[in-house]
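Let us work through a complete example step by step.
Step 1: write down the sequence.
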Amino acid sequence: MKMACIRLFTIIAVLLSAPAWSGMQIEIADPLYFERSHEVIFPWADAKLVSFEFESVAGIEGGKKRAKELHDLFLGKIQGLPGGAVLTFLTPEGQRIENYRITATQAAKQQQAQMSVWGRMFPDASGISLINVRLELVEPPNGTQVPFEGRVGLSHGKEQPIRGNIKDEVTQTRIDFLTVEETNVGALAEFLSGLAFYYKGAKDDNARSKRLLQTSIDHLLKYIEQTRDRVDYSAASAANLYIARAYYHLSRQDSAGRNSYLAKAEQYATDAVELNPYEADPYTALAVIQSARGRSAAIMPLKKEKMKWNKYSEASHWIFLAKGSTKYHLINFLK
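Step 2: predict the structure and record it as tokens.
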């Protein structure tokens, strides 16, 4: 039987009973490697990224080099993140990852990862090498929610009181980066590490999670700052959205700073909506934040605007009534 030729040439692991962060680059020479089952690497990790070398087109090379660079940068930035890990799959010189029968999402699921990332390099009109990158949230992180009370008009002219929760569940599971300069993968590493810290910080409600959430915000702000000269509106919206979500979680953990955190959360959620008005999640996050600030009267117009762009969405934007188990989709109320 032909065995897969695997060379592990970068292994960084913390040899403790509860590892903090780890990384591994795996070079695979067998094109059938991904068609077989493999042991899960870093099975304890719950903020794990699986990445691939970048495909190269139009004579542009360097996909392996930039993938290794992204791996090293991400690994360095998740120091101190419990459960953080990264696996990067590469092929030997002369081979291309696109010739292997695999998808990044499939590999991420096999490795029980939360995120996967891959991309393709190409030149723009001026000859500058760019990378189109796709981030898949294989296991989405926690969103936000808030108790809600209000009234909605019914078809016969009467109003129906509603009471329950507005849930900002993460339904945007794909984030595309369309204009990453080849020499600026550091900005991408800031985004990815910021999201990894958010994964962990949004899970708990303790002193450690406050530190993780603030670190997430710091990395995402660096991404925004480092991409101001070439703004990718969709990715920038996602960065602002997760900053808003992080501030919202902080507001629930720090009563003294609650109002300040909520004000910041609303600012970044509003920016997320303006940067990408076609995505549902920023609207729902903004509704949660505004309701938490006692501005429930603003929720209905906000929801109407969201449904204008997402009238066919089956995402989890529900208000659950307190009585019984009946649930009404917001689109039924807000036509």
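Step 3: interpret the result. The chain is about 40% helix and 25% strand.
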